[in-house]
Amino acid sequence: MKIPVLHINQFQKLKPLDNFYVNSFSNHVELNSKLINKPHSHNFYLCIMFTEGSGVHEIDFNTYRINPGKVFFLKPTQTHFWKFDTKPEGFIFFHSQEFYELTFLDHALNSFPFYYSYQNPPLLELSQSELNKLNLKFKELYIEYMQNKPLKNIKIITLISSIYIELTRVYSTDISTEKFTSPHYSKILEKVENLINKHFYTEKSPNFYANQLNITTKHLNRVVKQTINKTTSQLISERIILESKRLIVHSRDNLASIANTLEFSDYAYFSKFFKSKTGFTPLDFKKKYFR
Prior knowledge:
RmlC-like_jellyroll; 12 helices; 18% strand; sequence-specific DNA binding; 2 domains
């Protein structure tokens, strides 16, 4: 059983607009409960701001508390689901990469730190004054979406950009922005993460990814080290472990089949690798997750 990947056109839109969706969070849950009531991923970029409610939000096996002022960001392929203790409210919007970047040709989504890398935290917490300010911007975006005025697309993209800029300023107060100042390194990191996502099942050597990028392995390691303080081997291993966890928890395959899917020579080697990275055997991890 594969984790469902949701597409923008699956969601019940109040107003049709290609590659973009915005709604109040309560309406979104009511309209799309059948789509989002189980773990899933997306093929788009997503931003959620909570103004009310409490609960937990699990993103790629990391659990975060939900409370007023929390903002979450998700990139394509990330798996998530939420469980609420009290009724949530706020706003949610999502869009394709093309929707944003075809307008801002010189300003890619990875310019924003929360979309820069899968390694960066997918959330921030707003102060009350920041929440009040951003809430007005989200409302303006929602109202514009509901209306049918001239230059609607341009206005919406401008509002999205304004929201992202404000969120970046808050986000960057807690995270050093030094690593975001090199567009060249940023582009290499984005490319290697995308390559790893595409090839990690079969290619587990840093040398392969360096060759794909037409750079040396040493330079690739330098880029990864300077941007996210890790090695290329760590990036590859972390992606394998993430997929292992997804398959262990969300698929119906037995553990030996999962090892085979991930192209390990046998289950014993897979189990040893998994334990060395997580501290648990695959079976122990599965028992712990469902405990």
